[in-house]
C-alpha cells in the first residue's frame, strides 16, 4: 500500500484475509485514500480503537497512522483476535490514547515482538517505523533467533487470567448454534 501511495485508514484483523497458503491479504478499502490527498471528514462509525492520536484529534491520516493501526493489528494477532482496550468505551480509548496510554504487553508475548508493536505507537508520528523497517524487523525476529522459539507462548495463553476475550464463553452465531470452548483440548465443542 505504501508503494502505491494508499492510506488504508482501517487496518485491523477483521480486514485481513488469509488464504489456504497462509498468505495474508488486506481487504476493505472503503475508508482508504491516496496519500497526500488531504484530510477528509469521515462519515459513520470510526475505528477508534485502531486510530492514532493525530487521527483522533485532528482527522490526520497518512502512512504513519496506518503504522499505528498495524501495531494494534499485531496486538490483535498476539492475543488471538481480542478487542483492543476491551474494558474501555470509545470515548475512554480516545482520552487514554491521547494522554499517552498504550496497550500493555500480553504476558504470553515475547518482549522482542512487543517492542516492535510498541514502536508503532510512538506519540510522534515521525518516530514510528516505516512499513519497510517493520518488515525487516519482524523478519529478523523470525529468522535470526530460532533458539527463542515462538514469539507467542500459546501454552500459557489460556491458563492466565486476562482482560482479553474469554474463549470459554459460549459462542452464539447467527443461526442460533452454539459451541463451548474446551480448555483441555483447545477447541470448541458443539
TrEMBL record:
* A single GO cellular-component term on record: plasma membrane
- At the top level, the lineage of the source is Eukaryota
Pfam families the record matches: PK_Tyr_Ser-Thr
GO terms in the biological process aspect are: cell surface receptor protein tyrosine kinase signaling pathway
Gene3D superfamilies according to UniProt: Transferase(Phosphotransferase) domain 1
- Which GO-annotated molecular functions does the record name? ATP binding; transmembrane receptor protein tyrosine kinase activity
Q: Where is the Protein kinase domain?
A: 1-142
Kindly give the InterPro entries that the UniProt entry links to this protein. Kinase-like_dom_sf, Prot_kinase_dom, RTK, Ser-Thr/Tyr_kinase_cat_dom, Tyr_kinase_AS, Tyr_kinase_cat_dom
- SMART domains reported in the protein's UniProt record: TyrKc
Q: What is this protein called?
A: Cadherin
Q: Which organism is it from?
A: Papilio xuthus (Asian swallowtail butterfly)
Amino acid at each position: 500500500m505504501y508503494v502505491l501511495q494508499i492510506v488504508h485508514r482501517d487496518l485491523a484483523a477483521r480486514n485481513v484475509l488469509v488464504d489456504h497458503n497462509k498468505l495474508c491479504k488486506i481487504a476493505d478499502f472503503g475508508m482508504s485514500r491516496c496519500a497526500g490527498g488531504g484530510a477528509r471528514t469521515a462519515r459513520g462509525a470510526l475505528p477508534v480503537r485502531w486510530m492514532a492520536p493525530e487521527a483522533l484529534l485532528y482527522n490526520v491520516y497518512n502512512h504513519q497512522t496506518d503504522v499505528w493501526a498495524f501495531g494494534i493489528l499485531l496486538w490483535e494477532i498476539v492475543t488471538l483476535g481480542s478487542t483492543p482496550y476491551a474494558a474501555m468505551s470509545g470515548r475512554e480509548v480516545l482520552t487514554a490514547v491521547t494522554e499517552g496510554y498504550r496497550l500493555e504487553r500480553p504476558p504470553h508475548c515475547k518482549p522482542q515482538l512487543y517492542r516492535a508493536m510498541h514502536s508503532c505507537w510512538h506519540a510522534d508520528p515521525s518516530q514510528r517505523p516505516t512499513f519497510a523497517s517493520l518488515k525487516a524487523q519482524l523478519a529478523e525476529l523470525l529468522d535470526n533467533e530460532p533458539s527463542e522459539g515462538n514469539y507467542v507462548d500459546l501454552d500459557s495463553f489460556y491458563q492466565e487470567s486476562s482482560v482479553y476475550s474469554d474463549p470459554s464463553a459460549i459462542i452464539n452465531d447467527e443461526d442460533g448454534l452454539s459451541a463451548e470452548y474446551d480448555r483441555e483440548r483447545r477447541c470448541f465443542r458443539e
